[in-house]
Amino acid sequence: MTTAPSHSGEPDRPADDSTPKGEDLAALLLRLLPETQHTQKELATATGIKYTRLNQWLTGKRGTTRVETDELHRIADALAQWGADVTRKQIFEASGRPVPGRASEEREARLLKIYRALPDAQQRDVVKYAEAMAAVTRVS
């Protein structure tokens, strides 16, 4: 396997699109922002993420494992638009999240996770609600 050239202090990594070993989302963004000559505030504006929230991720005051999927996509889009050498896969891996497949599969998995966390009575309510929504959709 070939490896990307190592810069001083930077670990060798496979020459594919994975993040350097141990690089979390904060480290990745802190590395890429200067390369793109953009600031945290510009990234916040470009992605619609509140600056204080983004800054808390980057300073370690707030974890990044609960960053919404849409936010990760917007971060990847903004960085790519600014010319950063980064992929969605790197963004998702750095946040500790699986790289999403098709959006419908991800929604189904999310819904199932929420459903399983509910007590039985609320699960029944969710099923009734979903059935009512489906009936309305068929009528429309």
UniProtKB/TrEMBL annotation:
Q: Where is the composition biased (Basic and acidic residues)?
A: 9-23
Where is the stretch described as Disordered? 1-23
**Top-level taxonomic group:** Bacteria
Q: InterPro entries from the entry?
A: Cro/C1-type_HTH, Lambda_DNA-bd_dom_sf
Query: In what residue span(s) does the HTH cro/C1-type domain sit?
Result: 30-79
Pfam families given for it?
HTH_26 (PF13443)
State the protein's name: Helix-turn-helix domain-containing protein
Organism equals Streptomyces gottesmaniae
Taxonomy of origin reads: Bacteria, Bacillati, Actinomycetota, Actinomycetes, Kitasatosporales
